[in-house]
Amino acid sequence: MPYYTYPYASQRTATVARNGMVATSQPLAAQAGLDILKKGGNAIDAAIATAACLTVVEPTSNGIGGDAFALVWTKDKQLHGLNASGPAPKSISIEKLKNQGHEKMPVTGWIPVTVPGVPAAWAALSERFGRLPLTEVLKPAIEYARNGYPLSPTLSKYWKRAYTAYKQRLQGPEFEEWFRVFAPNGKAPEIGEIWSSEDHANTLQEIAETKAESFYRGNLAEKIAAASTSAGGFLQKEDLESYQPEWVDPISVNYKGYDIWEIPPNGQGLVALMALNILKNDQFTHREDVRTVHLQLEAMKQAFTDGKEYITDPNMMKTRVADLLSEEYGKQCRDQIGETARVPEPGSLPKGGTVYLSTADGEGNMVSFIQSNYMGFGSGIVVPGTGIGMQNRGHDFSLDPEHQNALQPGKKTYHTIIPGFMTKDGQAVGPFGVMGGYMQPQGHFQVAMNMIDFGLNPQAALDAPRWQWIEGKKIEVEHSFPNHIIGQLVQKGHQISVSHDSGGFGRGQVIMRNPETGVLIGGTEHRTDGSIACY
């Protein structure tokens, strides 16, 4: 693993520190996590502080009413997984939605709202691994919500884009609170404009003081359920009362000496592992080579074909993860890759909105954490008087009762958000992740190969031009992608389009630890307002 070398012309150099590091998409959130480290908190406390702060300083991608997943490496050399995604309401059904005239799950409104897991994730992580009280850890987020902060450039861009879309699409009284909270002057805030939300601050304070109990079994739960009922939604108080996040065993594949870890289904991390498993016996010498990119694309398409077919609530999966990650199945998939592009079966893959963060402390603890409202601001629902923006994760359910990811009461859907982690010989290498809807496993796959196969340090691995499979033979590449490779891929049958908007190619963060010195080496995303805070 390259820690200090710079074999790729990266836009920024990797960041190096020893005592602690926080990498995420917003400088204010990264600094909030670092402040908690300096107050005596550990990497878990810093991750919670950063995540809570991101609900305030990057509401375009996540919120209190979203879901979360975490991979936590503790100083005793154990890796723990947390699945804090929520199920569909118990009163919802395909039949009810079809009777209302729906042929597929809506994108906005109360129907696609599932039980949020974010507050429960913070509380569970704090209770099991945290050192500081939740009231102290959430303090930076509360202060930013109450006192306000100036919008950064990328944040302003996506806020304005969401406002423009919502103004056209969101009709009805249930959406009025979103505009009151996020467009207080009848428009999206501009770059440098101060935005605040007293309701958001009060809700975070209540979550901190009750260790999230109010959100699921108290005052906040009552407000959420009342808002749902008044708008004809299916989410009820009993759905919130019965919710608990799940501690899970992470899954992995060994890729050329490194163990790459993901959260098991219902998350799509399995897709990244399957793609790596398909190519793990191939040798690659050059990253910018048509053979390399062709094999990457074909492996990813096969992995996504299976992922979209099989991934759903783990209690309802008909296919074993172990079978999909087996040596035999990986070889079978590799044998099917030829010299030209193939056509897989899944449909179009929509883009999404998520935040990802990595933290590490000087004791050996490291966290890979991701949370999301999905598709930017999510459902367009904000619970009145709380600042809680609700996710629309249920949009991924199928209304085809024969589909493995078919909507059922109390079922968890296929989930796009995934944290990643890397180890070698039982030692932590570090957390990594790339947010962005269905780009996420593709980003994990490319960043992991950049570091392992091509010797790129964390920053260079993130800065390297990316590709994204869309559907069929359609591939989208960044404008910085080498033209000669594009031409050679076209000759192999790939349908290439060049995008000048890098926002759809994910936003990643990486923190690696040098096993010999304990020094931390970090990379952050230039495709957003990425920042690393460290000391």
Description:
The structure is a single chain. The two termini are 23 Å apart. The strands form five sheets. A seven-stranded antiparallel sheet has the order 1-20-19-15-14-9-8. Strands 7-4-3-11-10-2-21 form a seven-stranded antiparallel sheet. The protein has a three-stranded mixed sheet with strand order 16-17-18, covered by helices on one side. The longest helix has 21 residues, at 290-310. The chain is 36% helix and 19% strand. It contains 19 helices and 21 strands. Helix 13 packs across helix 14 (290-310). The model is unreliable at 3-9 and 346-350 (pLDDT under 50). Strand 10 (355-361) and strand 11 (366-372) form a beta hairpin. It has a domain at 248-343 and 418-534: Glutamine Phosphoribosylpyrophosphate, subunit 1, domain 1, CATH 3.60.20.40. By secondary structure, it is α+β, with helices and mostly antiparallel strands. Its EC number is 2.3.2.2, 3.4.19.13. Pathway: Sulfur metabolism; glutathione metabolism. L-glutamate binds at residues 396, 437.
DSSP strand (E) fraction?
Answer: 15-25%
- Please write the CATH class name of the domain at 248-343 and 418-534: Alpha Beta
The first-to-last residue Cα distance is 23 Å
Output the structural class. Answer: alpha+beta
| Multimeric state | single chain
The mean pLDDT is 94
Spatial strand arrangement across the major sheet: 1-20-19-15-14-9-8
Main pleated-sheet profile: 7 strands, antiparallel
Organism: Pseudoneobacillus rhizosphaerae
Keywords: Acyltransferase, Glutathione biosynthesis, Hydrolase, Transferase, Zymogen
Active site: 354
Binding site for L-glutamate: 396, 437
